């Protein structure tokens, strides 16, 4: 009896999941406003006194990301070990702040064990920029020509203005001197206010008139991004879900791979939250240096199949917030890769499909991808070759029959004795 209990216990222990790799989406650090450093009604800003150029990280922002890297080291340092190029992949947007954030984070996560550069406790680690991480929520504007046009024509887009408290709009228009005629401009005004409020810098002062609005700015901002991301949930959400899942699928094939980092924006996490209906991610836009860690576990006692791979999600709303486990309503525990694949079946958007949609504003359904697919191209080639060969043979046969026919008809060539 005791032996059986022991065996049971042993099997329980053995069935324990082993961390296979981790995927982390994180937001850049503190930055200056992306659009309005000042409003038309403000005194001009002294560019030389700015903490950084427009939309770039501040020194605080860089330090936040460095600290974030140290936090990751605390959490995963033992698992990751020393830096090796086959262990990790880092993707960032093309926005400078996401690139700089990736670099600062890596400085905190992988300080070299021995000096690589004599004077500097730092080692260079490659990062890869992909602009499609910036094409999210209002980030499509100015980046996605076709989609921007389509969105602006969509009645739901203009309708977003009708949902804004008219007295709020009146105050904003009056005090900023901006017409604020579309949701994009409205969001940029909010962003400028929100950013300046948290910067608390004398070089970019928060306007006195906006003080009464300060407590509600997050709510307004979350509200407008919620509507914008709902508008693009299927496409942008489907694309984000595909990045998340395809990287898990691909990395399972790479035995030495341990981590995939994505340095992006608050809206990348927000879109994932909308797509998977994870409330905690969409209650509020996350703060600087927030992150979503996706831990992928394998059961070492059974062969690797999508159903034996378990996935856990952890969210940290800001740099210092303790991580909380995120549940995905449609993927009940244990949430496996198999379940994730099932709930996203037919809903994932490949990178190519998103790119076409972004450029043209039309869903090509990744058509080109299927045609460009190796197997299909191969069989197409064979089919064409067969067709051409058959035509040649037929043509030859027809010609030779015709010759014989003509020869028969031609009196000159008729055999003399018939
Ligand atoms: C990035 O920095 C360059 C200058 O180095 C600047 O011209 C550009 O506007 C910045 N772009 C973004 C998207 O951050
Ligand atoms: C808008 O500005 C005008 C004149 O500058 C002022 O009379 C009016 O009260 C302002 N309205 C609001 C809502 O601030
Ligand atoms: C803003 O900075 C000033 C000093 O410049 C400080 O006294 C004040 O407490 C800060 N406010 C906030 C909200 O951090
Ligand atoms: C903003 O506040 C309003 C009113 O309190 C609330 O109904 C709404 O859900 C809030 N929106 C967000 C996105 O938090
Ligand atoms: C977004 O799309 C996914 C996939 O169709 C769906 O499951 C989810 O409920 C949608 N989210 C929202 C907020 O509509
Ligand atoms: C970070 O988030 C936690 C949890 O939401 C909150 O309690 C804390 O005040 C936040 N810290 C900062 C600096 O915003």
Set out the fold topology.
Blueprint: H1 2-14, E1 17-27, H2 59-80, E2 88-92, H3 96-109, E3 128-129, H4 145-153, H5 155-162, H6 166-176, H7 183-199, H8 217-231, H9 233-251, E4 259-264, H10 266-276, H11 279-282, E5 291-299, E6 309-316, E7 324-326, H12 337-343, H13 351-360, H14 367-372, H15 374-409
Parallel strand pairs: 1-4, 2-3, 2-4
Antiparallel strand pairs: 1-5, 5-6, 6-7
Helix pairs in contact: 2-3, 4-13, 7-8, 8-10, 9-10, 9-13
The structure holds 2-acetamido-2-deoxy-beta-D-glucopyranose (6 copies).
One 2-acetamido-2-deoxy-beta-D-glucopyranose binds at residues 219, 222-223, 226.
Features:
2 domains, binds 2-acetamido-2-deoxy-beta-D-glucopyranose, disordered C terminus, 418 residues, alpha/beta, Rossmann fold, globular, Histidine_acid_phosphatase
What does this molecule look like?
Residues 1-15 form the signal peptide. Residues 369-379 and 407-418 have low confidence and may be disordered. β6 and β7 (324-326) form a beta hairpin. This protein has 418 residues and is of the alpha/beta class. The radius of gyration is 30 Å and the shape is globular. It contains 15 helices and 7 strands. It has helices at residues 2-14, 59-80, 96-109, 145-153, 155-162, 166-176, 183-199, 217-231, 233-251, 266-276, 279-282, 337-343, 351-360, 367-372, 374-409; strands spanning 17-27, 88-92, 128-129, 259-264, 291-299, 309-316, 324-326. Bound molecules: 2-acetamido-2-deoxy-beta-D-glucopyranose (NAG) (6 copies). One 2-acetamido-2-deoxy-beta-D-glucopyranose binds next to α8.
């Amino acid at each position: 009896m005791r032996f059986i209990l022991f065996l049971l216990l042993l099997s329980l222990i053995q069935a324990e999941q082993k961390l296979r790799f981790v995927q982390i989406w994180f937001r850049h650090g503190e930055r200056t406003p992306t659009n309005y450093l000042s409003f038309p009604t403000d005194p001009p800003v002294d560019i030389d006194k700015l903490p950084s150029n427009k939309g770039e990280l501040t020194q605080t922002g860089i330090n936040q990301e460095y600290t974030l890297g140290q936090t990751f080291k605390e959490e995963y340092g033992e698992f990751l070990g020393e830096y090796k190029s086959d262990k990790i992949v880092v993707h960032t947007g093309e926005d400078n702040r996401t690139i700089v954030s990736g670099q600062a984070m890596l400085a905190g996560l992988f300080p070299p064990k021995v000096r690589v550069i004599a004077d500097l406790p730092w080692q260079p680690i490659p990062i890869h920029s992909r602009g499609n991480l910036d094409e999210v929520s209002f980030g499509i504007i100015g980046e996605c020509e076709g989609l921007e046009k389509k969105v602006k024509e969509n009645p739901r887009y203009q309708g977003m203005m009708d949902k804004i408290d008219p007295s709020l709009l009146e105050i904003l228009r009056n005090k900023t001197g901006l017409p604020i005629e579309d949701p994009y401009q409205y969001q940029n005004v909010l962003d400028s206010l929100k950013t300046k409020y948290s910067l608390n810098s004398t070089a970019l002062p928060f306007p006195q008139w906006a003080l009464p609005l300060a407590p509600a700015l997050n709510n307004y901002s979350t509200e407008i991004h919620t509507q914008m991301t709902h508008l693009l949930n299927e496409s942008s959400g489907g694309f984000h879900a595909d990045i998340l899942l395809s990287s898990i699928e691909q990395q399972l094939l790479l035995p030495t791979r341990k981590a995939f980092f994505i340095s992006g924006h608050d809206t990348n996490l927000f879109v994932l939250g909308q797509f998977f209906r994870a409330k905690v991610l969409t209650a509020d836009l996350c703060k600087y240096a927030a992150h979503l860690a996706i831990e992928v576990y394998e059961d070492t006692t059974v062969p690797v199949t999508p159903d034996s791979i378990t996935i856990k999600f952890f969210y940290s709303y800001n740099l210092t917030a303790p991580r909380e486990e995120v549940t995905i309503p449609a993927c009940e525990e244990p949430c496996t890769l198999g379940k994730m694949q099932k709930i996203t079946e037919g809903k994932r958007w490949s990178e190519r499909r998103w790119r076409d949609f972004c450029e043209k504003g039309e869903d090509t359904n990744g058509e080109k991808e299927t045609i460009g697919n190796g197997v299909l191209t191969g069989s197409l080639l064979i089919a064409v070759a067969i067709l051409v060969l058959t035509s040649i043979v037929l043509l030859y046969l027809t010609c030779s029959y015709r010759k014989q026919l003509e020869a028969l008809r031609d009196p000159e060539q008729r055999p003399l004795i018939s």
